[in-house]
């Protein structure tokens, strides 16, 4: 039974950067979506007008958050593109929740 749990519970980490009209009230929505999906990490506005961060959690939940970051976003956002990088399997989570960084 533990083998099955391990196979379906692989933890992933991915960095992201979202381009478009994405700064403003969106970070709160990102935090809310992350908590709803059960992923951890952080989000931050950059001086270049993008939003960047990191998401960690079970692979299926990280994939769901990636889809939200790339296609949905906050109600007032306009996403032009989302870059994902440094995607890897991890042995443990580096964060206990999802937060906004300044």
UniProtKB/TrEMBL annotation:
Enzyme class: hydrolase
UniProt name for this protein: acylphosphatase
Active site as annotated: 27, 45
Keyword field contains Ribonucleoprotein: no
Superkingdom in the source lineage: Eukaryota
Entry keywords, A to Z: Acetylation, Hydrolase
Xref: Gene3D superfamilies: 3.30.70.100
EC number(s) recorded for this UniProt protein: 3.6.1.7
Pfam families attached to this UniProt entry: Acylphosphatase
PROSITE patterns in UniProt: ACYLPHOSPHATASE_2, ACYLPHOSPHATASE_3
Ranges of residues in domain Acylphosphatase-like: 13-102
Coiled-coil residue windows: none
Recorded GO MF terms: acylphosphatase activity
Family: Belongs to the acylphosphatase family.
Catalytic activity: an acyl phosphate + H2O = a carboxylate + phosphate + H(+)
InterPro entries noted in UniProt: Acylphosphatase, Acylphosphatase-like_dom, Acylphosphatase-like_dom_sf, Acylphosphatase_CS
């Amino acid at each position: 039974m533990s083998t099955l749990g391990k196979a379906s519970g692989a933890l992933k980490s991915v960095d992201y950067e979202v381009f478009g009209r994405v700064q403003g009230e969106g970070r709160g929505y990102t935090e809310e979506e992350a908590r709803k999906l059960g992923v951890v990490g952080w989000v931050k506005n950059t001086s270049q007008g993008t939003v960047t961060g990191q998401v960690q959690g079970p692979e299926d939940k990280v994939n769901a958050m990636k889809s939200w970051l790339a296609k949905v976003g906050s109600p007032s956002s306009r996403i032009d593109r989302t870059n994902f990088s440094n995607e890897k399997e991890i042995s443990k989570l580096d964060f206990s929740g999802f937060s906004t960084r300044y």
